[in-house]
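Handoff note, outgoing to incoming analyst
You'll be picking up this chain. Sequence as last confirmed:
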Amino acid sequence: MKKRIGTMAVLGLAAMSLAACGSSAEETTAAATTTAAAAEAETEAETEAETEAETEAETEAAAEELSGSVATDGSTSMESVIGILGESFMQLYPDVTFTYNPTGSGSGITAVQEGRCDIGLSSRALKDEETASGLKGETVALDGIAMIVNNENPVADLSIEQIAQIYTGEITNWSEVGGNDEEIVLIGREAGSGTRDGFESITGTEDACQYRQELTSTGDVITTVSQNPAAIGYASLASVSDQVKAITVEGVEATEDTVRDGSYKIQRPFVLVTKDGEALSTQAQAFYDYAMSSDVADLIAQAGAVAIH
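Most recent structure output, in case you need it:
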């Protein structure tokens, strides 16, 4: 009996020894796995840090190497957008001079054709004859065309049909649309303006508007409407200030969100225009790529327009 008990004790000790060995092996394996994972994570972190450092170094090197000038010409409605993009670009590339000549969309397109600027600015899509002549346009942002009235005008909303009737002379007095009993004064942009082209195309009033004044810039339109209680005009959403009142169109306010989702109907593209198949200078191409990147979406929003990238 004692002999059997002794044997069983030996077997028990052996089992305990095996269990301990197994536990030790598992712990060793777990420790090795943890160490390997930590080493891998550390390696990845080092690689990521090195990549970031290389990218930063490359960016700094590019900034040091890029110099010269970038000339843009065209749409006055794009002043806020192109201004903020130009300033930001020059901060990235201190040795580059960026210029903007606010002459209107038509003039900007002509300037590209004649080689008087690097990039043209148009607040309308290019026409078939313009693309056929060797130009190409790419949309950098969308802009609502706000309908504006004097701050004293009680009218707050118009339909697109009413706007068309006002600008073609079918409706001539504000009292016909819920306003004061006074003759409506129609303010618009000059022929060749992208804002005018967009407005007339959307409202179906091409060559039929009975303008009292045709002005050469968005700023002039806003100032004129602000000084005349009976005036109505249209202006880039990006340029509208509290000098005037932007009315809703068919109940929809012109905002970044309503332009993006299409619920605000009077809108148009902001377009960068270049010669198709002709390379830009290094610095002009750098600006073009910068303006078309998703990196500038917040800047475009700050300027009052809607980025599409």
